[in-house]
Amino acid sequence: MALAAIYLRLSRNEEQLNIDEILGNHRSALIKLATQNKLTYDVYQEISSGVNNVRPQLNLLLNKLVEYDYLLVMDIDRISRDNAYAEQIKTMLIAHDIKILTPQGAIDLTQESNEMLFSFQAMMANFEYKQIRKRLGRGRLAAAEQGKWVMSNKAPLGYKKGENQRLVIVEDEAKIIRHIFQRTIERVSANEIAKELDTYGWRSRSGKILTTSHISSIRKNVVYYGVVQACRRVNGRVVDEVFVEDAHLPIVSKQTFLEVQKILAENKSGSYFNKKKATRRLQNLLYCSCCGRKRYIQTDGETDFIKSCSYKISNNTCKDRGHKYLPVEEFVLQKVKQKKPDFEVALEKLKNLDTSNEQHKLSTQKESLIKQMGKLDNRQKNLKIMRMDGEITKAEFLELSKENDNKIKNFIQQMDLINIQLENLNNTEEEQKRIVNCLETLSRIDQLQPEDCNTFLKTFIKKIFFSTNSTADHNTRREALHVTIEIEWV
Prior knowledge:
Blueprint: E1 3-10, H1 19-36, E2 40-47, H2 56-63, E3 70-72, H3 83-95, E4 99-102, E5 105-107, H4 112-145, E6 159-161, E7 167-169, H5 171-185, H6 190-200, H7 212-219, E8 228-234, E9 237-244, H8 254-265, E10 286-288, E11 297-300, E12 303-306, E13 312-313, E14 316-317, E15 323-324, H9 325-337, H10 340-351, H11 356-388, H12 394-442, H13 450-457, E16 461-467, E17 484-489
Helix pairs in contact: 3-4, 5-8, 6-7, 10-12, 11-12
């Protein structure tokens, strides 16, 4: 008994309808069609746009075409609404002698008239898609003019979709937005703001850390002062645009938003934010051994102190006691100086490695592989042409294609291995330069300015975990316990 592949695709603009009912009806119709033609079948179904060429179920089906004799679909546009991709699929179906069955009739692509019919129906499906998209775009702009949020299914951070598709403030998220705008007005950089948000434990809606990229996007989004903005493009050109103020309650005022835009514009003249320079060698490297959070340094009179830790952990506050900063800095610098012999040994090993001959050999092998893979790609194209012209049978095509694919896979594996080996050789040279630079800097580390020293330490120190092993309280006379300092090297 012949085997058929049933492909079911629900369009994105049908998603608002009853998905199960639509797919159920389509499945029943195609299973009935398979039964009438005495076919056994496998079912592939997914929700995707017809112009989307990255469809997991369709790609899985196409990779297994060798197993099937028929393809059952409700209509040609369910395969693809993209002309070029539809032609690629048609070529694959012809190469594998696959016949198409629809409730409207059969399409045998080996017949010239049916092949033309397939191409014509694919072209009409593409035209219909463009018309639907145009109507949807106009409807989207009409909804935006009424103040509705139609930019995406997701509301931006700080809002949720309320009745009639209007945005409603979510206070727990809105405080993040207000903080970002306020700190920007105070000329705090996106990098510093991101660190503050992480310290407060404020996250995105999905629980992810808010990065500088998120912050930059938020600061330029007009939605936060009550605006709904939308546009319609044709061939990449804006042909219609909507900009509605007071569409919903703002999280920040229009004045605040415009002030922030002015500050952002100043970046072009180089007077953007007052960036905080490192004033101490271990700045932004100290972390609490108890709770894992960052430890901060403050000045009391003329003495620098590592502040007591006061972060909350599961409703309990971390109370690791503060400590004088200078002894901790001296300890860390001493540990760093002790790394010098390790650097020297590593450098000597790298210097004794002569990689020039190996690099030339690998490069020659890589060029040869590239040429051979090019020949195999051309051979695969020729096999498809020979199959379409009837010069070879389906069995011969499959056998030759399989042999060709195996050679290509083997060459790809060889290429990956060579690329890894070349990368390792290049890394060896870069590593030598890095170690030499480290040794030079290490010899004069005591003379480095705090900012330069801080930058240098961050190249090979990830974190310095510190604890006084005592609880912060008002008893200043008690004897302090021995502190713990652990360095996490990069």
